[in-house]
Amino acid sequence: MASTKFQLCLLLLQLLAHGNLLDARKAARSASAATPATIEAAAEPFWLDPEELSEESIDLVDWRQHPCRRECRDNEPAMECRYTFHIEHYYAMSKACYDCPYNATDCSRPHCIPADGVNRPLVVVNRQMPGPSIEVCQGDRVIVDAVNMMHADSTTLHWHGQHLRTNPYMDGTPFVSQCPILPGASFRYDFVAETAGSHFWHSHVGFQRGDGMFGPMIVRKQPKRDQLRNLYDHDEHHLIISDWDHELGLDKFLAHYHGMGDNKPPNLLVNGLGRFTKLADEKHNRTALMPTATFRVKQGSRHRFRIMNAEFLNCPIELSIDNHTLWVVSSDGRDLEPVEARSLVTYAGERFDVIVEMDQAVANYWIRFRGLLDCGPTFTKAYQVAVLRYEGAPEDEDPEAEVDYDLPAKEAGLLQINSLNKGTEAEEIMSVPQLDALDKNGIANDPLIEPDYKFYISYDFYAKDNSEFHRKNLYGFHQVAHKRQKVGTPQLNHISMKMPTFPLMSQTEQIDSSGFCNSSTVEGCETDYCKCSHVLQVKLGSVVELILVDEGVPYDANHPFHLHGHDFRVLAMERLASNVTVEQVKRHDAEGRIKRKFDRAPIKDTVTVPDGGYTVIRFHADNPGYWLFHCHIEFHSEVGMALVFKIGEHEDFAPVPTNFPRCGDYRSNGLTTTTTTTTTTTTTPRTKTSKRPVKIDNVEDNEIGYHAENEVRKSIATWLPLILSEIRAYNSSGTIATTWSVFGLIMSLSWSLS
Ligand SMILES: [Cu+2]
Questions:
Q1: Å from CA of 719 to ligand 1 middle
Q2: Could you tell me which residue ranges the Plastocyanin-like domain spans (predicted)?
Q3: pTM, 2 dp
Q4: Burial of residue 721 (number of CB atoms within 10 Å: 0-12, 13-18, 19+)
């Protein structure tokens, strides 16, 4: 007993000395827990109920064997599906990879994340990338324990495509639906998988999605509800695509926004795998290529492939399969009248399901992924392949066809779907509004219903002195020496979103809605930099039309937009010119030249807008809450290319779960009276007269000195009696331990004083 107390005391000292909570916690676990059931590192992945797992074995579970990943049946009761997600910083091509890729089987060892063979830091779940695949039937209850094991970063999990109608607090949007999960803390996500289809989960914090924190989420339908059931024989394959860098997203972001670094991903991965360059081991005189994703199919059968674009930069992907056509049958979880295509373009956040008929000779065929825009011909030419392997085809051979970026798919007479920067005006392609929904027409695409709200949302990259990365008179946009240092500010209606410091949805009582802004409440934002909490408020049950306008001035960039909590009908999409103004689009609309397609307009939750053009979407605002609407490119949304819809009134919101975590600003009203003034509660709209608080000589330095001194006093007062009692307890036999106690005390004091 005394020994445990002593160990605890030492741990707390360690904590004081180093401030390292995780080490302390880890040590506490080993000190207190009985020997846990451990599994050899080289063990095969296995399945066990998460409730029965030890800490160490969670990362070895093969989640594909989860009982919820089953064939869905009519009239079957819903299941409860539990998962444990350990979120960690980790490393590609770590020591767990042994001799990968020279010994190919080593690449699939537990905890080996091969990626494209290049070492780099990661943020992953359960030491896997992609993370565990959540595969359930529509109506199942999903319970995910997210345990943040990172040393210093917070996180959340967003269930991209789920609307969370019964439990909106599970949306995983930091400062909109919840507080970020702090290092060491856990959060239990608990919701019903209501929205069927191919979705994915991902971190909604910083650049963690780009660093590897994503995974598939597939909600299959019961046969009676599945309108596509007669069109395919097999439904076991998914392709989750990521754009891939060789450094942390944050490093790339900082280099791009503050230095001369680019924002272009050099590579792509499919299901976490891909090639970059041929690797050479000179010592043993051998070379090898990294493994690629391989999909096994049967000749003569029809396979459904679920494609999820989890990318984080501006890298649309053109996908094609050699010698095969794609039947596009679904997007963002909503079914479509099947369309035959030679290739398909997807944007960050989008999902498409295709059915492929295996009508070719038994062989291996390439599935090709060509990067466009920032991954395109003028930049990195990012390119990846995967293998379609017919049963009976050679196991360890590549397909014969050449692999090269400049070999786009060509099949005479067939279309490309969702082409880059093209809309209904383009003849040789099929744009999204030209697809037909299989679902019935609804309130959001009824030509007889006038929308209750019509918002024009325009955007571009603006040459502004954004105080985050272009300080006026110091290194202003027009002041910096190099063209590559001029970074445009992506904004919606000339406003950068300022996130609140507490979640809007769960801490409504703290909201001062006079702090909300939108284009009607601010002025001068076309030229000056404006940042505030951009909120568009609509009545519950209303029909909302958004006309998204990409002004298209600096370059042919392209932004995919995602709406949380709802899906929408895509009524129109058109490119007008290489650039366009909102006024021109308004005029175009007033003259009746925006042709809205109502009948069977496709339903999506993520959509692109042609550069120099517009996309018109409509949604039925029937899910009360605060919901984020944002560009799905993380380098854009993280600097404010986002806004929030407030749908309904606070009293319409679902009750906040009991003991739901809270967060927000804190300002002492006690001893420290010299704190500086900053914005309060939500945010303040920009006003031309606002001034920075005046700084009095060295007030901040004095404060720091005061705090440090206080900390020392507190340390001594708290720990001295404990340590003295330990010294007394160990007076006779604890010589070594006593030395450590005194050493710990000295360390903590010297740390406090330093
Ligand atoms: Cu964007």
A1: 52
A2: 110-222, 238-393, 509-649
A3: 0.83
A4: exposed
